[in-house]
Design a protein that fits this description.
Layout (H helix, E strand, L loop, with lengths): L3 E4 L14 H12 L3 E5 L4 H4 L9 E4 L4 E4 L2 E5 L4 H13 L4 E5 L2 E4 L1 H17 L4 H13 L2 E2 L8 E7 L3 H10 L3 E7 L5 E8 L4 H12 L6 E5 L5 H6 L2 E4 L5 H6 L2 E2 L7 H8 L4
Parallel strand pairs: 1-2, 1-12, 2-3, 7-8, 12-13, 13-14
Antiparallel strand pairs: 3-4, 4-5, 6-7, 6-9, 9-11, 10-11
Helix pairs in contact: 1-10, 4-5
Length: 277
Amino acid sequence: MSKIVFLDVDGTLIDYDAKCPESAARAVELARANGHKVYICTGCSKAEIAQRDLPELDGMIGANGGYVEDAGEVVMHQALSLAQVRHIVDWCNERHLGFYLEANSGMYINSWFVEQAPEAMKKYAMGKGASEEQAAGAGQAFIDGMIRTDELYRDDVNKVSFILSSYQDHLDSKAEFPDMECNTWGGKDEQALFGDLGPKGITKKHAIQVLLEHLGASQADTISFGDAKIDLSMFELCAYNVAMGNGGPEIKEAADYITDDVNEDGLFNAFKHLGLI
């Protein structure tokens, strides 16, 4: 029986230096050759994914569920409204918070992000196991892939990530934006370094439901892989769930199976364990 596999990206399909282990790419290739479908299910928008060296896939769920694509066909795209983006941009600028607007056309940043992102991304990478030198390089590479502009009131934004000066910024965002989904993401043990804001009701779980309906496929044939709390909504829906060895405690507690770390052939070993390859 062919399966439909959903892979988180950072910390699952690729490591925290944004590199895809050769064994992970091979696992995806072999699984697809065996008739299984493999999709990424990520917080990243399409522009960010386009910068990654990923194996060939059947499609993607992006923006934490705001964008669904199957074999090049856009199945769903739920973006923030222009009014919502304007509200976020003004709120972040008033608080001097660096942010990036995640759109399929690119990632657009304000001037505060240029100043604050190197340190935030360094903490993120080091928290995930990178050396200080590796972390500094990864942070700069992340910024280099973005677009600095004053034209930040846009109508094509999937979601917005902003750098937290403290956890209070996230709590304040929940009060300020009750019409949106408010999350955090970060480094070691999912330390909150960034907040993010997206359309209300949009989750990875919802996006998988939309894709399954489009495919005419059964929930019983689904398998998901993740490493962070944001992946728990995938686990709520999919029939079988795998946590990466480098994952946080909550995702491991919710998993049916815990595989090895992303850089210790975790994906390949799990695909083999599950009979996908």
